[in-house]
């Protein structure tokens, strides 16, 4: 889904899957997403995976990678290992979004621990586009692999390849955490050392389908 603030909801084609899911996920595990947006004194915007050590300006934490699941000791050991290697994050919108509801239901039915980040502002939408290359909701990341739009078949293949069980193995006491905004604002300063923050490497993206499946989402 693309996130224009005033555009109507509409369905879109599902993210296309690579022929070698395992290889793609291995690449995803080593990929690094931008985690900070830096606005310098001159107004220049830079995205980086490293927090400036001597800031002067404005630094915004994007929350691209939020491995909260990996810190949950009540998960079964093998599931905890998968979560720590390929954390799952669901990006949604605060507006009406039936595909987002379906995405949550699918992940919970399968028992996938995930973090939910919501696009609640134009700045959130901008951050989502920078992180995923699009403005669709829902968007799912498995490790650093990006899947835009909900499709149970395509999502299932990536979750299978990552090692997530097909049936829930979560303990009965497990509680999913509440959704949070995509970005968390913090005022800081950007270093005046002349060294620009290193840009984050591009996220690997699914390109070749292995099987067709229903998909849907909305555009902002």
pLDDT under 50 segments (min length 5)?
Answer: 4-20, 26-32, 64-71, 187-214
Structural class: alpha+beta
Q: How many β strands by DSSP? A: 11
Mean pLDDT score: 73
End-to-end gap: 7 Å
% residues in beta strands = 15-25%
Question: What composes the largest sheet?
Answer: 5 strands, mixed
If you compute it from the alpha carbons, what radius of gyration comes out, rounded to the nearest whole angstrom?
A: 17 Å
Neighbour order of strands in the largest sheet: 8-7-4-5-9
- How would the global form be characterised? globular
Q: Could you state the order of secondary-structure elements as H and E?
A: HEEEHEHEHEEEHEEE
- Estimate the helix proportion, in percent: 10-25%
What's the helix count? 5
Summarize the structure.
This protein has 220 residues and is an alpha+beta fold. The chain has 5 helices and 11 strands.
Features:
220 residues; alpha+beta; 5-stranded mixed sheet; 4-stranded antiparallel sheet; 5 helices; 11 strands; globular
What does this 3D model show about the protein?
The protein has 220 residues and is an alpha+beta fold. It is built from five helices and eleven strands. Strands 8-7-4-5-9 form a five-stranded mixed sheet, sandwiched between helices. β1 and β2 form a beta hairpin. The N and C termini lie close together (7 Å). The model is unreliable at 4-20, 26-32, 64-71 and 187-214 (pLDDT under 50).
């Amino acid at each position: 889904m693309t996130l224009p603030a005033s555009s109507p909801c509409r369905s879109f084609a599902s993210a296309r899957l690579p022929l070698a899911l395992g290889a793609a996920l291995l690449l995803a595990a080593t990929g690094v997403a931008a985690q900070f947006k830096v606005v310098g004194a001159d107004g220049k915007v830079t995205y980086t995976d490293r927090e400036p050590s001597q800031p002067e300006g404005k630094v915004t934490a994007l929350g691209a990678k939020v491995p909260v699941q990996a810190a949950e000791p009540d998960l079964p050991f093998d599931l905890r290992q998968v979560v720590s290697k390929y954390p799952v994050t669901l990006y949604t919108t605060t507006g009406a979004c039936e595909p987002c509801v379906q995405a949550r239901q699918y992940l919970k039915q399968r028992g996938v621990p995930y973090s939910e980040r919501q696009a609640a502002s134009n700045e959130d939408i901008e951050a989502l586009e920078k992180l995923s290359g699009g403005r669709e909701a829902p968007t799912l990341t498995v490790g650093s692999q990006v899947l835009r739009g909900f499709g149970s078949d395509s999502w299932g293949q990536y979750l299978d390849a990552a090692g997530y069980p097909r049936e829930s193995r979560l303990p009965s006491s497990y509680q999913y955490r509440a959704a949070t905004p995509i970005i968390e604002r913090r005022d800081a300063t950007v270093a005046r050392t002349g060294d620009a923050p290193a840009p984050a490497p591009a996220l690997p993206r699914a390109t070749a389908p292995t099987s067709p499946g229903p998909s849907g989402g909305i555009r902002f």
